[in-house]
Description:
By secondary structure, the protein is α/β, with parallel strands linked by helices. Helices cover about 40% and strands about 20% of the residues. The longest helix is centred in the middle third of the chain and has 15 residues, at about 105-120.
Amino acid sequence: xxxxxxxxDDPDIIQPLxxxxxxxxxxxxxxxxxxxMRQVIENSAIDIILLDVMMPGxxxxxxxxxxxxxxxxxxxxLTALSDDDDKVVGLEMGADDYITKPFNAxxxxxxxKAVLRRCDSDGSELIEEEEVIAIEFGNWTxxxxxxxILDKDSVSVALSSAEYRxxxxxxxxxxxxxxxxxxxxxxxxREAKAFDRSIDNLISRLRRKVEIDTANPKVxxxxxxxxxxxxxxxTKIYKNA
Length: 241
């Protein structure tokens, strides 16, 4: 389930839009300003941001540039301005799309799905992941149906449910730094405990299966002060390829 963050200071927009997107299978968080936005991003794994341009304090353009520089999360800007020059500025700041208020909620949903498909932020719902039969990373291949990994000699290594879920999170976000809080959010959702350190133990277990040398990991690397990252690109293999 893709996680959408709506950043807008107008509750008359936030609440109806949150209900609409939730009804269409998306997980939705909200923030009313830049400070709240940062708090949500730090504690949750956000896949896409709907960001209002006209807000007091830090406006949407400043926040868009901040998000792109630090997190590389896809952004769709929402604005009451219709001038093409304003749209150009927004896109130059790193926005992936630009929607003018008032907007049709169904059109926004379609544009949101299109951006997610393009960025491949989360394969679970919007990218028809059932068509993916395997994912290659380094010398490994994840068999999606069997939920096991195969080495370069096609020798299989079984994964527990928790290990499979964690690996899937990394494969959906390759080369992206994920904090412990984000990994907990993605693997446990609302059941995650704020100070749960079990994610470190799970990382260690998964490393024992995918690393040649767990003391010098090459697949899942630790980022000092940041968390963990899958340090290589991935290739998806589709059913009809």
